[in-house]
């Protein structure tokens, strides 16, 4: 019996989830569970920080692509290739190329990415209930690993750097 590999399938942009659902339904209807093992749309967890609030969401890593774990043969190739919304397999000509384990790890792994509604140089307001609440300052540094922001606040006529959590500030933009 042949070995199952992961293959990349190109789809119309915006049809990724529909293609994944259609392939999954076809697997059930045709009894191909032992040949097409998994179908997924590579997504990345994203944490948006807007107005001092954290909101988790998911973002497609590669819009227009779906990955399929399958044993490549004429039947499985035909089923996937002829699914509505699929434009073809990724590979030279009509020959699909399996993903390497390293490529697969890149597609499926990774820590959540932070998306901020501010950047270095922006003016922000402190929203946390601390000694700096309602003060405005200019962002001097953002440390994504520690999830902190360093802002300059005017205290007693001098610029004073203050390190706060990303959720302690709100963009003034």
Q: Numbering strands along the chain, what is their spatial order in the largest sheet?
A: 11-10-9-8-12
The overall strand count is 12
The outline comes out as rod-shaped
Low-confidence stretches are none
CATH-level-4 superfamily name of the largest domain: NusG, N-terminal domain
Class from helix and strand fractions: alpha+beta
Spatial extent as radius of gyration: 24 Å
CATH class assignment of the largest domain: Alpha Beta
The CATH topology name of the largest domain reads: Alpha-Beta Plaits
Tell me what the CATH architecture of the largest domain is: 2-Layer Sandwich
Walkthrough of the structure:
The structure is a single chain. With 173 residues, the protein is an alpha+beta fold. It folds into two domains: 4-114, Alpha-Beta Plaits, CATH 3.30.70.940; 118-171, Roll (SH3 type barrels), CATH 2.30.30. Helices cover 18% and strands 43% of the residues. It has helices spanning 16-30, 74-81, 101-108, and strands spanning 4-11, 36-40, 43-50, 53-60, 65-71, 86-89, 113-116, 123-126, 136-143, 148-155, 158-165, 169-171. Strands 11-10-9-8-12 form a five-stranded antiparallel beta sheet, with no helix packed on it. Strands 2-5-1-6 form a four-stranded antiparallel beta sheet, covered by helices on one side. Strands 4-3-7 form a three-stranded mixed beta sheet, with no helix packed on it. The N and C termini lie far apart (60 Å).
Concise summary:
The chain is an alpha+beta fold.
């Amino acid at each position: 019996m042949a070995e199952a590999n992961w293959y990349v399938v190109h789809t119309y942009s915006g049809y990724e989830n529909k293609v994944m659902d259609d392939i999954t339904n076809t697997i059930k209807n045709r009894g191909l569970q032992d040949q097409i093992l998994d179908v997924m749309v590579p997504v990345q967890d994203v944490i948006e920080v807007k107005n001092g609030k954290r909101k988790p969401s998911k973002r497609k890593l590669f819009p227009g692509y779906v990955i399929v774990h399958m044993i490549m043969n004429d039947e499985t190739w035909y089923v996937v290739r002829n699914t509505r919304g699929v434009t073809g397999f990724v590979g030279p000509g009509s020959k699909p190329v399996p993903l390497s384990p390293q490529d697969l790890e890149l597609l499926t792994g990774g820590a959540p990415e932070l998306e901020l509604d501010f950047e270095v140089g922006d003016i922000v307001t402190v929203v946390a209930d601390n000694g700096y609440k309602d003060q405005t300052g200019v962002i001097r540094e953002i440390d994504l690993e520690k999830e902190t922001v360093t802002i300059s606040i005017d205290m007693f006529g001098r610029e004073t750097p203050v390190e706060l959590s990303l959720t302690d500030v709100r963009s003034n933009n």
